Amino acid sequence: MSFLLVQDIHHTYFTKTSATTALSDISLQVEEGEFVSFLGPSGCGKTTLLSIIANLIKPTQGTVILENEAVSTSKNKIGYMLQQDYLFPWKTIEENILLGLKLSKQLNSKTKANALNLLNQIGLSGVEKQLPKQLSGGMRQRVALVRTLTTEPKLLMLDEPFSALDYQIKLKLEDLVSGTLKNYGKTAILVTHDISEAIAMSDRVFLFSPSPGKLHRTFVMPEELRRLSPFEARNHEAFSSIFQTIWKELESLESRKQ
């Protein structure tokens, strides 16, 4: 069985006066160590599906299986990295990265040493006693990544974590995050509006159609791109044609939406 199995997911948001179907008949699977992206027009339910996989929302219908267990029983197996870093401004960087370990009762001398070592590996040695306000946006996102990885989640959820950053910082962080996840053999799902980012970082790209959200098409990235860093992949000769193909599909979906 696949590492992550999403089966027949259907989700409707109910209010006193209305019912809005966000997702319909979503089924997909992700293999261990794979990096996949969810791409699609606004309103296609990407973040809703991410929240269902992370067990933050219970779907109206369907199941999510992670390592042969219902995701509702998968404690500490899922990590989340968001657009905002959500670091506590009054806590030091060290206190922030150890927070997940503390809350999950995994904090000890070994896990603390591992967290500080990862902070060093990711290029942030010497900032342990500083406060978040003393770091740049890109540095804070690196801290958020360390905080997410310290609890050793099996699956990482990346919800547009680079979208608020300057373009140059964004490209550097894509490389850093991609390389770090590969080194640690992590499985990741990225939600993004950026076609280039999805192509450069992913093994597969799931394209969703809106109203309600459905899986429209799956794009498998060629091996020659997957072997490269995201920055290198953007400059590969195969990149442009893949971008154009996905762009046209996305344009078609956007025009249908209107």
TrEMBL record:
Signal sequence range: none
InterPro entries: AAA+_ATPase (IPR003593), ABC_transporter-like_ATP-bd (IPR003439), ABC_transporter-like_CS (IPR017871), ABC_transporter_ATP-bind (IPR050166), P-loop_NTPase (IPR027417)
A molecular-function term among this protein's GO annotations: ATP binding
Keywords (A to Z) from UniProt: ATP-binding, Nucleotide-binding, Transport
Record bears the keyword Nucleotide-binding: yes
Domain of life: Bacteria
Domain spans labelled ABC transporter: 4-235
CDD domains: ABC_NrtD_SsuB_transporters
PROSITE patterns, per database record: ABC_TRANSPORTER_1, ABC_TRANSPORTER_2
Tagged with keyword Plastid: no
PANTHER family: ABC TRANSPORTER ATP-BINDING PROTEIN (PTHR42788:SF21), TAURINE IMPORT ATP-BINDING PROTEIN-RELATED (PTHR42788)
Name this polypeptide is given: NitT/TauT family transport system ATP-binding protein
Organism listed in the record: Neobacillus ginsengisoli
